[in-house]
Amino acid sequence: MTLPHTGGCRCGAVRFEASAAPHHVSYCHCADCRHASGAPVSAFVGFKAEVLVFAGEEPRSFANGPVRRTFCGTCGAPIAYLDERLPDDIWIVLGAMDAPEEFKPQMHAYVRQQLPYVHMPDALPRHVGTSVPRPDGTSE
């Protein structure tokens, strides 16, 4: 992987740059991600928030409980997922990366909610709940 890692929304109004390698790349099968993305499965690239810098238009956001999802206010493209229980991290949607082929998912999360017709025959670890432990011990 070459640094910096860059990306943005579909129209280019929101851009970002990460100055370090991601700490996490995973698929998510939870219903919340399905509803937010419209896709049967999502993929995220996790970075420490301190290494990510945004440029251009400020992303808009929508909060639901401890989760906040950001998107471009111009084109509506999803950008990121934030969890107030993990304030030092930000998960960028894989499709927002300029070079998504560089970020191969390392695991699956929320496989308990995986749609029965989605078949991903890989040998990656599968987590029933979250793939990122929360400091409070919750797995949701």
What does it look like?
It contains 1 helix and 10 strands. With 140 residues, the protein is mainly β. The strands form 2 sheets. It has a 7-stranded mixed β-sheet with strand order 6-7-8-9-4-3-10. It has a 3-stranded antiparallel β-sheet with strand order 1-2-5, with no helix packed on it. β6 (60-64) and β7 (67-71) form a beta hairpin.
Question: How do you describe this structure in short?
Answer:
By secondary structure, the chain is mostly beta strands. It has one helix spanning 31-37; strands at residues 5-8, 14-18, 24-28, 42-48, 52-56, 60-64, 67-71, 78-83, 89-93, 108-109. It has a single domain (5-113), classed as Metal Binding Protein, Guanine Nucleotide Exchange Factor, Chain A.
State the main characteristics.
140 residues; mainly beta; Metal Binding Protein, Guanine Nucleotide Exchange Factor, Chain A; three-stranded antiparallel sheet
- Using the CA coordinates, give the radius of gyration: 14 Å
Find the CATH topology: Metal Binding Protein, Guanine Nucleotide Exchange Factor, Chain A
Tally of domains: 1
Determine the structural class based on helices, strands and strand pairing. Answer: mainly beta
The number of strands is 10
Rounded to the nearest angstrom, the distance between the terminal CA atoms is 31 Å
Q: Count up the helices.
A: 1
Quote the average pLDDT. 94
* SSE arrangement, N to C: EEEHEEEEEEE
Shape estimate: globular
Would you identify the CATH architecture? Beta Complex
According to CATH, what is the class? Mainly Beta
Identify low-pLDDT runs. Answer: none
Strand order of the largest sheet: 6-7-8-9-4-3-10
The largest β sheet comes out as:
7 strands, mixed
Strand portion:
35-45%
Kindly state the percentage of residues in helix. under 10%
